[in-house]
Structure formats: C-alpha cells, structure tokens
Amino acid sequence: MNKKIKLLPLLLIASIFLSACTSTKPNAELTLVKQEQLVLGTFGQISAYSSSETEGNAAISKAYERITEIENLMSTSIEGSDVYHINENAGIQPVQINPSTLEVLQKGLEYFPVSKETFNIGLGSLIELWGIGKAWQKVPTSEEILTAMNHIDLSQLQVSEKDHTAFIKDSDMLLDLGGIAKGYAVDEAINILRENGIQSGLVNLGGDIYALGAKTDGTPWRVGVNNPHVGQDNSIIRISISDKSVVTSGDYERFFVENDIRYHHIINPKTGSPADSGLVSVTIISDKAMDGDVLSTSVFILGLEEGLNLIENLPGVETILISKDNVVYASSGIKGNIEILDNNFKMGN
To answer: Which GO terms describe its cellular component (predicted)?
Structure first.
C-alpha cells in the first residue's frame, strides 16, 4: 500500500495594497496595517487602511478576536464548543447554543434544498470515516460508506430559534460546519472592521477572501485564482472586485494518495465519496463569504452544467469553474471581468 499525505492550503493571491497611492489623493495619508495569525486551522491575513497604525491594529485585533470566538463555538474538535456539545449529546438531549451558532445552523439548513442537497452540514460521520488530513485517513470499504450514509439525514437535526437549542435525534449523526463557518468568520471580521471605521481593507482566511471597499486610489482590488494543479502555485486568473467575497474550492486543497489514486476532501453526500464532477476548481464571487463557502462546495459537486445553472438563478452571485482539461467557464455576470494569466488555460464559454 502506497500512502502519501498531502495538505495544501487554499490559495487565492490578491494583487493588493502594497503600493501607496499618489499624494494628491485625500486618503493618501491612510496607513496600511497588516496582521497574520493562525486561525480556524489555516493562515489568516487581515490588512486595513486606517488613519493611524494604532487604530488600524486595534480594529484588526478585534476582528481576530471575533474569528477566534467563532472557532471556539463551531469547531468539531475543540472540547466545549457548541458543535462539540451537540455531537456529544446526539440522541440524548438538546444543547443550548450561542446565537452565532444558531445563525450558521439555520443558514446551513436553508442551503440544503437550494444546493440540490449537495451541501449538508450533517456529513460529520462521513468526514470522520474518510479522515482526510487526519492520522486515520484511509479509503473506507463500501459497507462502511453505506453505514455512514445512513446517518446524514438533516431531518434528524432540530434547531429551535425560540429556545436557542440544537438537537440531533440520530445518536450516530455528527455535525460538521467546516464548509460554512470559515466564510461566516470572514463576514464577521469585515463587519468588525467596518464598525471600527475601516473603509478599505482585505480579509483572507486560507483563501476565503473579502475585499472591503476599493483600494485607496479608488480602483478595485485585483484578486487572483490559483492554479488548481498539485505542485503549481501561480495565479491563472485575475478579476477586479470591490465589496465582494471570493471563495474557491478545489480538489487540490486537502487530499491523500493511496495505491496511486488521489482522494480529496470534498465529499459528495449522494455517493459518500470524494466528488468526481469533472471540475478541479470552483470560485464563487458573492456579497457574503458564507454564501461563497457553501456554493463553491455545491457547484464543485454538481459539476459544470448543473453548477452554472444553479448560479445563474441566484441573484448577486457569480462563478468561475475550471475543468480537468484546463478550460475555464464562467457565469454570465463575470465573463467580462476575467483576465487569463496562464496560456495553459483557455476560456470555454
């Protein structure tokens, strides 16, 4: 048996904020402040233009505090988190939860039908079974997969807005908010920056990006989508955005290789195995990173035709899809804003 562990962070390279704007601009006096931290199991970068370094650092620190709070509420592995308690009490009793956890659970439930049942916050038993990125990662047997799939029914999850409780009726079902909590954390970090007077900045949590406002010279932020092929780290696409999130999911982010077959972390709830839709990367451009987090996973699982159709019917959302044969597809609202940087890739529609 040939096993190889490979963990690659999702990388979106932002062509951003390092150069000062001309002194003729009124906001040229703003100071660029940056902080980097390990949060939510990934590398976080927050940058902000502020009237002073002290104020900028204070705003960014508050944003990181909020991100850490979310991690402590929604992690599956942190003992004492809301999700940990919900899973521990599956089949036993309802658990009192924080309003933030309640909000994310409700959003996850809402997206289940919207995503054509491809986004499921109750996939914890399957995710644990595959264990991708963990010490026990392996290819499960067909019987193990079928057994786990008997415990991903979201009708078994009861969420009470009145009582602020959550309860899993199935004792073998597990919640996992890994496909939505990071996007929510990005949105909350942006809210904190705005509340503290920041009008221009960028939050990047392991590739879940939000570009706040425009750059200080009034031009949009330029964000690049990374090459989806393992071992490549160049940007292949560049787009310009302001007050938008850019979130990418791909089969190159987290995976392991067993018997020369690569198994990635995006599990299709309808098969119980890593999705095989012909796509290698899906980028979502939307007003909220939480929506982008969810939809990038869903579209990746649905594939080119169904995925594009889903996005074309959602207002304010655009997508860029890359197929295994290096063809780039895009929804109608973003086509004119795509710059191909790598000649190995070509537009397909």
So the answer is: plasma membrane
Q: Tokens in use for 206?
A: 């392991």
Domain residue spans of the chain = 33-74+179-347, 82-168
pLDDT tens digits, residue range 22-51? 333 345 589 999 999 999 989 999 999 999
Rounded-to-5 percentages of helix, strand, coil across the chain? 30, 30, 40
Place of tokens 């089969």: 251
- According to the annotation, is 297 in a ligand binding site? yes
Q: What is the pLDDT of residues 91-104, one digit of tens each?
A: 999 999 999 999 99
User: For the structural domain made of 33-74+179-347, what CATH number should be given?
Assistant: 3.10.520.10
DSSP state of 5: E
Spatial distance between the Cα atoms of 15 and 222, rounded to a whole number of angstroms: 5
Copy the structure tokens of residue 192: 């904190």
- The CATH H-level (homologous superfamily) assignment of domain 82-168 is ApbE-like superfamily (1.10.3980.10)
Give the C-alpha separation, 295 to 226, whole Å: 18
Give one DSSP letter per residue of 231-260, joined into a string. T---EEEEEEESSEEEEEEETTSEEEEETT
Residue 253, Cβ neighbours under 10 Å: how many? 24
Distances 28 to 21, 137, 185, 243, 331 between C-alpha atoms, Å:
6, 51, 29, 20, 36
Q: How far, CA to CA in Å, does 214 sit from each of 40, 50, 57, 65, 119?
A: 27, 14, 20, 25, 32
Provide the pLDDT for residue 254. 84
In DSSP terms, 294 is beta-bridged to none
Q: Is the pLDDT of residue 4 over 60?
A: no
**Residue 179 known to bind ligand:** yes
Q: What is the pTM of this model?
A: 0.91
